[in-house]
Specification:
The chain contains ten helices and five strands. The relative contact order is 0.17.
Length: 178
Amino acid sequence: MKSIFYDIDCLVSFLLIDRLDVLKNVFDKIYMSNKVFELYTNPSISSDIRNGINELVREEFIKIEEISLNTNEFDIYYSLINDGKTDKYIGKGEASTIALAVKHKAIVLCNDCKNVGFYLEKYSLKSLNTADIIKRAYQKKIITREDAEEIWGQMKKQAVLLPEDSFLSESHSFHISP
């Protein structure tokens, strides 16, 4: 499988309901830009979320990657955060995730691709979201249908952006390509 670069929202989806086991069974490792990691260290983020992220870094499940000056990924990052030519504003976390995904020809994980979809298409990047991860875990028999439905429901209660009200309403027609 290609490398996976996380934006902030998908990881929080699993942290909120204490189901990191699903992520760890679907992926061997995930990558996060240092800009996204810095977002997690913000004091406005709950200590449970910060502690969860720090633990995943200590366990080496999350690998933090920096964008160095004078590199192609820095040029992409800089152009994305300073793109005055379009109305497609994205933040530093999203821009760094896209720049590193371009570098590694990786998959971007994000729940709300509305503001980054233009750039995913521009750089021919594939993306996955929280629903895709749950579906992949179900397909691989990591979780049962009942587990998937429970996870889905818990995430909906936490206001996680998912396409339908229940896993069951989605499960009959999903297709996961990457």
